């Protein structure tokens, strides 16, 4: 069973860029049928999908939530078994628990434990 672990800063200042990394316990990131995603949950709110990355041979396909597309980037480093979320120009509304997941499109089989991110000056 694959395991995922998020890492990154717990506190980010408004207007700065948030970078989170997900480390995967095996070398399954390049798997064609696997989608690696970022999901967040703001306090008192539901889960929000941010985006996903999928590998098809040497190609990396990325998908982003339309409202966040202009601020979001997801990439992967297969040599390190990691994929990364970049969220720019953060505001306090971006404060949330951020999760990395793996699975099929819209089916999230495996989750990291989550990491709290607070945006505050």
What would your notes on this structure say?
There is one protein chain. This protein is 0% helix and 55% strand. It has 121 residues and is mainly β. The strands form 2 sheets. Strands 2, 4, 5, 6, 9, 10 and 11 form a 7-stranded mixed sheet that branches. A 4-stranded antiparallel sheet has the order 1-3-8-7, with no helix packed on it. Strand 7 and strand 8 form a beta hairpin. The radius of gyration is 14 Å and the shape is globular. The protein starts with a strand and ends with a strand. The model has no long low-confidence stretch (mean pLDDT 95).
Strand and helix layout:
Elements lengths: L3 E4 L3 E2 L5 E7 L10 E7 L6 E9 L2 E6 L7 E6 L4 E6 L8 E9 L2 E5 L3 E5 L2
Parallel strand pairs: 2-11
Antiparallel strand pairs: 1-3, 3-8, 4-5, 4-9, 5-6, 7-8, 9-10, 9-11
> What oligomeric state best describes the polypeptide chains here?
single chain
- Into which percentage range does the β-strand content fall? over 45%
Name the overall outline: globular
Structural class: mainly beta
What does the radius of gyration come to?
A: 14 Å
Number of strands: 11
- Low-confidence runs of at least 5 consecutive residues: none
| Average pLDDT reading | 95
Number of helices: 0
